[in-house]
Design a protein that fits this description.
By secondary structure, the chain is of the alpha+beta class. Helices cover 45% and strands 14% of the residues. It has a three-stranded antiparallel beta sheet.
Amino acid sequence: MNFSQNQIVFAGAAIAVLLVFSILVFFNLRPSQIASIQLSLWGFEREDAITPLLSGYSKLYPDVKVSYKEVSKDNYENTLLGALASGQGPDIFPVHNRSLSKNAGVISPVQPSRFGVSQIQNLFPKEVGDDFVLGATNSSAGQVYALPLYFDTLSLIYNKDLFDQAGIANPPATWDEFQADVAKIKMISPNGQIIRAGAAIGGSRKTVTNAVDILNVLMLQNGVAMTFGQSYASFASDAGAGAFNFYLRFADSGSNYYTWNESQPNDFNSFSAGNAAMVIGYNSDIQKIRAKSPFLRVGVAPLPQINPSNAVNYADYWGLAVSKQSKNQDSAFDFMLFMTTNPQAAGQYSEASGNPPALRELISQKINDPVFGVFARQALTARSWYETDKNRIDVIFGNAIVNALGGSADAKKILVQAQDQITQLMQTK
C-alpha cells in the first residue's frame, strides 16, 4: 500500500506528538505544571541584595518566577498608584508602616486561616500588629494587610570625639541628660553665631531631617493621646504643647539650651562635618553618615527617654503587601510569607540590606549585636499612631514647626490649628 506525501507528514507529526506525550507521562508531568507562574516584585533595595533570596525561593517553588524591579522612594506612592491604574502594577510591593490606611484599597489582605492576628503578634513586635492589621487587633476579626521586611527606630547618633573632648563618658539616657550635654558641648560666639551645635534639634524639616518624627515621639513619651478613635486628632493638649515647646527650645536664642537655628546646614551634613555633636536618626541615616564620613567616630545609642523604665520609641519601616490586582495571589502570599516569616530568608535580607530585623526570633539574637543591638532593643517598645495620610500629616506638623519658629503665634495656638487640620483630613478620608 502506497502512502501519499501528505499522509506521511501527518503520520510523522502524530508519532512526534505521541512521543512528547509519552515523555511527559514518564516524568509524571502535565503541561499545566511546567508553565511558570510569573510574579513581579517592587522594592527599594539593590538588585544584588535581593537576587540571592529570589534564588532561594525558586528552589522551593521551581514553578514560580519572581522578577524584581528596584524603585525610588521619591514620589513612590504616586508611581505605584499610577502603575496599578494602568494595569501594569506589581504583584507584591512595599507599604510604609504609617501608610496602610491610605493604601488599603489596593491591597489584598491575607486570609485569616492562612496568617492571622495571633501569628503576627507572636512573630513580630507589638507595633507591627498595630500598623499592619485592620479591624480588631486582639481578635480574629482583624486581617493582616502587610508584613515587615525589617524594623527601624529613631536612635541617638553622637560624635565620640566631641563627647570625649567635653568630658562626657556616656551618651544621655534621658532628655534631662541630653539638655545638660547640649549645654556642655555647644559653642556660641559672642555675637550669637553657632560655632558648634550640641545637637541638631529644634528646627524645621529643612534643617532637621526627622523633625516631625522627633516631635511625635516626644508627644508619645509624654503620654499624649494623638487621636481620639479614627475620626479626631487630640494632641493639642497641655502635654502636647509641653512636648512642642520642649522641641522648640533648642532653636530659641533666649533658651539656656539654644544650639540650633534655621541658618544651619542639613543636620546630617553638619554632623558629618563635625559641627554637630548629636543628631537623631534611623539606622538608614547612620549608613549614609558612615558612607559620607568613613573616618568619623560615630556612636549609636538608644533614643533619650523621659522615663527609661517605661521607654517609648518610634518605629519607621516598610513591609510587603499583595496587590488586589494580582492574578496569582496565592503564590504572591507564599512569597510574602517566605520573605518575612522565614527566619533564614529574613536574616539573609537583613544582612544583605543592612536593615535591622523584624522577626522576634532574629531580634533576640541581635540584642547585644554591635550594629543592630540598639535597634533590636528598641523594637519591642516602639510605637507610632494612626495616620490617615502620612505625607500630608508630615506637611501639617512641618508647617506648625515653621510657624512656631517664625513667632506667628504661641505654640499652643499653632498646635490647635494643626490638630484641626488633621481632624479634617481624618474625616474626609
